Automatic annotation (TrEMBL):
It is found in: Cytoplasm. It catalyses: N(6)-acetyl-L-lysyl-[protein] + NAD(+) + H2O = 2''-O-acetyl-ADP-D-ribose + nicotinamide + L-lysyl-[protein]. Gene3D superfamilies: SIR2/SIRT2 'Small Domain, TPP-binding domain. GO terms for cellular component: cytoplasm. It comes from Lawsonibacter faecis. Residues 1-244 form the Deacetylase sirtuin-type domain. The gene is cobB. Belongs to the sirtuin family. Class U subfamily. The lineage of its organism: Bacteria, Bacillati, Bacillota, Clostridia, Eubacteriales. The active site is at residue 121. This is NAD-dependent protein deacetylase. PROSITE patterns: SIRTUIN (PS50305). Binds 1 zinc ion per subunit. Its main location: cytoplasm.
């Protein structure tokens, strides 16, 4: 992997509008399981498949069961940023990286210090009453039981994009603007199997498309540089040039 890392470092040194697009694999090194790996949610046994439970239809029809699964399997309040999160924040501070576009909902990029984070699928740290729109924190959800209710009596819903729900239009457009303007696009820790998020790759028109993932993706043949390795180890080895 030495040649690939040399090329990656060289591209980092010469780029000033880097965009990172990441998925669940970015947070597995922080102890958060992804959805499709051997130890991920899709390989565990529940009364219903995770994809069913995490759908808008299921949430509406069986909110108690939704929240039982959500609290047990989707919330990791003690998780800490790993080398990948920290390096991306360092690159932003150095003026090299313009945005992080993420499919994750754990808030670890912000915890590491990243500022321009576009959360395509929302965040567990934001929760709103469906009736009055009052805000509730992650701690409020964890400390509640059953279906959390607002003081007004309305049901509280996590600000996460469930299956069957559309992505937030403003977040998506900002992500597209950054990707279109990037002189280097790094894709890491994602199988690129979840749409429409995965289709954002098609909006990059540059010649430094880097794909870092442990397993193959549908976009491997399109990458200018392909590195089959854990994202934390790869990004953690990058030297950052610039004023911090």
């Amino acid at each position: 992997m030495g040649h690939e890392m040399d090329t990656l470092q060289n591209w980092f040194d010469k780029s000033s509008r880097i965009v990172f697009f990441g998925g669940a694999g970015v947070s597995t090194e922080s102890g958060i399981p992804d959805f499709r790996s051997t130890d991920g949610l899709y390989h565990q046994q529940y009364d219903y498949p995770p994809e069913t439970i995490l759908s808008h239809t299921f949430y509406q029809a069986r909110p108690e069961e939704f929240y039982r699964f959500y609290r047990n399997k989707m919330l990791f309040p003690n998780a800490e940023p790993n080398a990948a999160h920290r390096k991306l924040a360092e690159l932003e501070r150095a003026g090299k990286l313009t945005a992080v576009v993420t499919q994750n909902i754990d808030g670890l990029h912000q915890a590491a210090g990243s500022r321009e984070v576009l959360e395509l699928h929302g965040s567990v740290h934001r929760n709103y009453c469906e009736k009055c729109r009052r805000f509730y924190s992650l701690e409020d959800i964890i400390s509640s039981s059953g279906v959390p209710k607002c003081t007004c009596g309305g049901r509280i819903k996590p600000d996460v994009v469930l299956y069957e729900e559309a992505l937030d239009g403003r977040t998506l457009e900002r992500a597209l603007d950054h990707i279109r303007g990037a002189d280097m696009l790094i894709i890491g820790g994602t199988s690129l199997a979840v749409y429409p998020a995965a289709s954002l790759v098609n909006y990059y028109g540059g010649k430094k498309l880097v794909l870092i993932n442990k397993s193959p993706t549908p976009y491997d043949s399109s990458a200018d540089l392909l590195i089959a390795a854990p994202i934390g180890g790869v990004l953690g080895a990058i030297r950052v040039n610039g004023s911090l």
